[in-house]
Design a protein that fits this description.
By secondary structure, the protein is mostly helical. The protein has 6 helices and 2 strands, in the order H-H-H-E-E-H-H-H. 68% of the residues lie in helices and 5% in strands. The chain has a two-stranded antiparallel ribbon. The longest helix is centred in the C-terminal third of the chain and has 36 residues.
Length: 184
Amino acid sequence: MSDDLQVLADDCAAEARTFLTTMTEVASGSEPAAALPMTLLAVSQVLLMGSRLGAVQDVVPVERFESDPGPDVDVDPLRTALGNLFEGIDDYAHVVDPLLDVDIARSSVSDDVAEIALALSHGLRHYDAGRPVEALWWWQFSYLSTWGDSGARALRAVLCLLGHVRLDADDDAAAEAEFDALHP
């Protein structure tokens, strides 16, 4: 394994852990006012990790099969907690494949975050078992095939939510704030 790939694996493992820690904290509901901004930051950051993986040449494991890292991590508690936290704003619509068709589907931020968490956890099990090439292979493959798209959709949905929360204001309240700002 080249030094560059080892550095990439180490960076990706750190980013995966940060994402999982941040989203677990968000899902705890301890800081509801910070839930959307922290989700925006966490998803943006992990998509940067995925973009790095998408930009490098395909990582190919030494063996032509994936070692069994053991049972998948149960992400349902994370999905459920986020669904409860984002109740009423969790679901959104998206174009399934903007290059091939304009079919519209429904998704949810909680499902997307759980899908990302599952893929990152799977790769971390390879990484923690001393198989960094397999971890990179898994993160790269799953980014390109599933969680990159889920993350991009979730990022757009959360960004739209933040925009509505911060920019949608009652016309009278906006006019009053503008008047107060112009007439100190």
